[in-house]
Amino acid sequence: MDRDAILKALAHPARREMLGWLKEPETHFPDQKHPHSMGVCANQFERCGLSQSTVSTHLSTLVSAGLLTQSKVGQWVFYSRNEDTIAAFRASLTDL
After folding, report:
1. Backbone phi, then psi, for 80, in 5-degree steps?
2. Regarding predicted confidence, which is higher, 9 or 95?
3. In the chain, where are the structural domains located?
4. Do strands 40-41 and 68-73 pair parallel, antiparallel, or not at all (unpaired)?
């Protein structure tokens, strides 16, 4: 876990909001046609009002920091929270 990379990723409010949405995907992405157990499809994030390329950049940053995992199914990319990394990051904050 790279705590600095995580802190940089969390510095942007849109990325924090995306992480929050993924905590309860059934609530925030009810129209997704695929099961939420697969993650949330990248195109579902258009709800944040940002361009597709901006959304992709934010999701990529969260993946690079280890906060999200991604899986590709055909042409679609699905994102899920990496709860192990999030828990480790939270625990590391007690060391400050």
Report:
1. -140, 155
2. 9
3. 3-95
4. unpaired
